[in-house]
Amino acid sequence: MKSTTKPRVKICCIRSKAEAHTAIQYGASALGLVGNMPSGPGIIPDNLIFEIAQFVPTLIDTFLLTSKTNPNEIIKHQQRVKTNTIQIVDKLASGTYADIRIALPNIKLVQVIHVIDEKSVAEAIKISEEVDYLLLDSGNPNAKIKELGGTGRGHNWELSRAIRKAINIPIFLAGGLNPENVKQAIEKVQPFGLDLCTGVRTNDKLDVVKLENFFNSIEEC
């Protein structure tokens, strides 16, 4: 049975204006711009994040992926790069989401939940009251070197489905998505949006064939 509402697509790990243009051409409605991280692909300097964020059309959501865990540092990070959305990839170590909202009232907040077990579901339900979106990913913030995204791994979609059904805000589904499994992911989780990086790259470069196949797969849902 075909879905009547197609999920939005965020292409993450964008590294240049050219990649941003290509992703948008193929149908992306959001771009992920990766700031400094302890690990993972797509990391670019803040000055390039700023350039790309200013380059893309205003209707495209630009996500700053920040590993900062203090509201003041997160606020300063966004003010340097001027994206319209902040994706917080780790837990807040201090302060509150309200601190960020007061300073940046027009900026959307996305909290990443690394879906590991039932505790992740409880965490998602609690945090969903504080942010605009949740992004369900397959990292491991408890690893010796934190994995906060871009792993290319999947996770238990049953848990993601449980989160989606239990909360009142939209979710983006991430983690190992590609042209071959995206239809199953949409059917299983029914997310508001999809987020992918490695699934549309070859040798670390955006692959237009994989992009086209991915968007064609969504159209078939």
Order of helices and strands: EHEHEHEHEHEHEHEEEH
Number of helices: 8
| Helix vs. strand class | alpha/beta
What is the rounded Rg?
16 Å
Terminus-to-terminus distance:
7 Å
**CATH class placement:** Alpha Beta
Biggest sheet, spatial arrangement of strands: 1-2-3-4-5-6-7-8
- Structurally, how many domains make up the residues? 1
What's the name of the CATH homologous superfamily? Aldolase class I
Q: How many strands?
A: 10
Write the layout of secondary structure elements.
Elements: E1 8-11, H1 17-26, E2 30-34, H2 46-55, E3 61-66, H3 71-81, E4 85-88, H4 97-103, E5 108-114, H5 118-127, E6 133-137, H6 157-166, E7 171-173, H7 182-189, E8 193-196, E9 201-202, E10 205-206, H8 208-219
Parallel strand pairs: 1-2, 1-8, 2-3, 3-4, 4-5, 5-6, 6-7, 7-8
Antiparallel strand pairs: 9-10
Helix pairs in contact: 3-4, 5-6
Could you name the key traits of this structure?
single chain; 221 residues; alpha/beta; TIM Barrel; 8-stranded parallel barrel; two-stranded antiparallel sheet; 35% helix; globular
Structure report:
The chain has 221 residues and is of the alpha/beta class. The protein has a single domain (8-219), classed as TIM Barrel. The chain contains eight helices and ten strands. It has helices at 17-26, 46-55, 71-81, 97-103, 118-127, 157-166, 182-189, 208-219; strands at 8-11, 30-34, 61-66, 85-88, 108-114, 133-137, 171-173, 193-196, 201-202, 205-206. The strands form two sheets. Strands 1-2-3-4-5-6-7-8 form an eight-stranded parallel barrel, surrounded by four helices. A two-stranded antiparallel ribbon has the order 9-10. α2 links the parallel β2 and β3 (61-66). α3 packs parallel to α4 (97-103) and α5 runs parallel beside α6 (157-166). The termini are close together. The mean pLDDT is 91.
